[in-house]
Description:
- The chain is an alpha/beta fold.
- 32% of the residues lie in helices and 16% in strands.
- It has helices at 12-21, 48-60, 68-77, 96-108, 137-146, 211-223, 235-242, 253-275, 291-299, 344-347, and strands at residues 40-43, 64-66, 85-92, 112-116, 149-153, 160-170, 193-199, 207-209, 248-250, 281-283, 304-306, 328-329.
- The strands form four sheets. Strands 1, 2, 3, 4, 5 and 12 form a six-stranded parallel sheet that branches. The chain has a two-stranded antiparallel sheet with strand order 6-7.
- Strand 10 (281-283), helix 9 and strand 11 (304-306) form a beta-alpha-beta unit.
- It starts with 11 loop residues before the first helix and ends with a helix.
Amino acid sequence: MSARVPFAERGGPVRGLLDLATGCYPAFLFGGSIGDQLPVFHLHDVTRAWLEPRLCYLAENGYRTVTCEEIARLVRDGVRPGPRAIALTFDDAWASAYTVAFPLLRQFGMRAVLFAIPARVAEPGAASAFATPFVTWPQLRELQSSGVFDVQSHTRTHTMMFCSDAIVDFVSPDFYREPLLNRPQEAGGLGTPLYTRRSRMSDARRFHADESAADRCRQHVTAHGGTAFFQRPDWRHELRAVANGISGSFESDADRQATIRAELADGRAILSERIASEVRHVAMPWGISGAVARDAVEATGHELCFAEQPGRRRSVRAGDDRFHLMRLNGNFITCLPGRGRSWFFSAVR
Length: 349
């Protein structure tokens, strides 16, 4: 299988420059007006120092925040939410959604959408490999019942998976500095081989590596100093020799389709039950949605899906593809028309 990640699934400066060159960014980022667009911003883990001035900017310039139901009416029925309407969406349900965003949104009289990952939410004090940095179930229920947050799905597990039999690296101390949600769930302890990775919602087929090679590598690291092993200048070459003879299997097309559908259906069902409110919308992790996932979104009864699509305008209008709605980085909030606005290049610094 190919070890290459398709360009459409890569972020970074090159992708940003391409979007800029092809007119994907709306005119208001460069001093123009909003026109008939609805700007939808995505945010993640936030601090008070970052979020408060942006909410203050929205409030001082008369902006109103909407949630998924009004976005759906715009896209589906052409019903505009009114002037100066924008949407704020928070991905992942980090703890800061409760400790920082919740009180600030309430203070400014605003609402937002929270795309939560049910497999990474736990009861208070529960032992979970996923739970620590995210909101708890009681907090998530409080956010939903408050009316400040509209809780929707971010798939069940937000999985990054191995999709190639080519080793690209090994788990080292540096691996744990990567963003938590970017780490494949198959990654084990120090020395574990790492393969090309892609989102579960991509069209890639998952690679299941034979654990024998990983066991040999981990044992080798343990026997040669643990963390200190990675101070050797040739440690990667050494582990590649130990891992020699990699084997494994790729999931079938049928398993890929079934797993993706379960990710979407279960994410929606679990959240709906646990927060006692019907969940009908989803945001794809990393904005990635392959052809299989797009079909699965519709088949599992979702009404809206936020997902990246190269070459598409980063805003929402009536008649847009409701399963490929585009969002803007929250850094661009202060580019909205108003007193003290920023322009594109100052906002991305």
